[in-house]
Amino acid sequence: MNTFAGRKPENKTARRLLSFIEEFGKLDAEMQIQQIAVFLHVMGTPDLTMRELEQATGLSSSSVSRNVSALSKVHRKGQPGHDLVTTYEDAMDRRIKRVRATPKGSKVFNTLMNLLGS
Asked: 76 CB contacts (<8 Å, ≥6 apart)?
C-alpha cells in the first residue's frame, strides 16, 4: 500500500478504498475510471446489454464499446486487453450484445470484495 511520508492512512475505510484502487493498478497502472465503472456495473448486474451499460454509466455507445473492448481479452487493433469481461450475442436477438465477467474478472472482483470486507 502506498504511504504518505512513510505512514499508512489511519482511517480504516480509507485504507480499504486505497487497497481497492491499487488492485486495479496491478492490472494496469493507467486504467481509466470509466473502465473501472464499466467493470463494476457488469459485476453488479451480470449479462447487461451494451445499451444498459450506456444508461447505467452515462457514457456514449462508442465509449462503452471502447471500454468493454479494453476490459475484454483482445483490445482494439488486436492489442491484449485485461480479459475481465466478455461479450456475446443475446439468444433471442442477435443484434443485442450482452456483457459478463470472465473467470479472471470474477476472481478480481472477489479479491476486491475481500479487500472491502464484504
From this structure: 66, 69, 70
